[in-house]
Amino acid sequence: MYIYLGVVLFLLLLYLLFSSKAKKKYGGFVKEYEKDFQLTFMAPMALLIIEKIKFMERFPHQVTQLHQKIIRLYGNRQALDFTRMTLAQLASFSLVIFFMFTLLAAVNEGDHVLFGFGLFFACIVPPLMIKRIGDQIKKREEEIVLSLPEFVNKVTLLVNAGETVQKAMVHCVEQNKDEKNALYVELKDTVIRIRNNEPFTQALEQFSKNCAIQEVSVFTTTVLLNYRRGGSDFVVALRELARELWEKRKNIARQRGEQASSKLVFPMIFIFVAILVIVAYPALSIM
């Protein structure tokens, strides 16, 4: 018990000694991203620990893999800062879990099982959170692919009616009301670039990099290859692309339906077993 109590006191003392220094160094940085992350009260301390142990230098391969995931999820804008905050969040969760279970072990007269659970969860939580980032990336990519066919159709109709590609894209983005849609978040950034007189080709290339999806790359390539020529050839190219994108959207919708039905298998088995017990128990009790 005293060993675990000593660990708890050591962690508290460590936090009190370095919290002011950590907040002074990283408080402003953390405040900019507190809406996007959890346990931000621990983030300055976690960032200081990461710096002191030189985690990013010691594990460059793992940090690079995480950074690539962050780029795919948030784009190139401030990707390094998001990576640092993600590392801080992983460390914060591990430290808080380890502290809480160690405290519980000390309160329960040195329960080794609780301390073991604390070590286990402190080690397993970061990989689970990284896996969750992968799930968020997949969800974002699917959201973009699902929204892209409708956007391409709108652009095609406007171009066919005589609008330029730039004006058609701006009009579609302005008419959209879903501010949280991943595709339109990137499109809004592209429209801002166009309005700031950035070359259209450069704005589209950056849009493709931020989305980092094959379907978006195909769309931007199709536009860049054909938009200067205009006319019926450009409209035909967009229509063909829209048709292919609608097929991919149907495939994603079909896969989601299959996943939803597979998730219902376990509840159905559970209900079947419960009904079987309810029906069989009276019969067995009579016998």
Low-confidence stretches: none
Gap between N and C termini: 54 Å
Beta-strand content bin: under 5%
Instruction: Give, in order, the helices and strands.
Output: HHHHHHHHHHHH
Keywords: Cell membrane, Membrane, Transmembrane, Transmembrane helix
Pfam families: T2SSF
Membrane topology: Multi-pass membrane protein
Main location: membrane
Report on the architecture of this protein.
The protein is an all-alpha fold and 287 residues long. The protein folds into 2 domains: 1-110, no CATH class; 143-253, no CATH class. It has helices spanning 2-31, 43-52, 55-58, 60-74, 79-107, 112-160, 165-175, 182-195, 200-211, 214-226, 231-263, 265-286. α2 (43-52) packs across α5 (79-107). The termini are far apart. It comes from Aureibacillus halotolerans.
What's this entry about, in short?
It is found in: Cell membrane. The protein is an all-alpha fold and 287 residues long.
Topology:
Layout: H1 2-31, H2 43-52, H3 55-58, H4 60-74, H5 79-107, H6 112-160, H7 165-175, H8 182-195, H9 200-211, H10 214-226, H11 231-263, H12 265-286
Helix pairs in contact: 1-2, 1-5, 2-5, 4-5, 4-6, 5-6, 6-7, 6-11, 7-8, 8-9, 9-10, 10-11
Domain Type II secretion system protein GspF: 151-282
Main location: membrane
Transmembrane segments: 38-55, 87-107, 113-130, 264-284
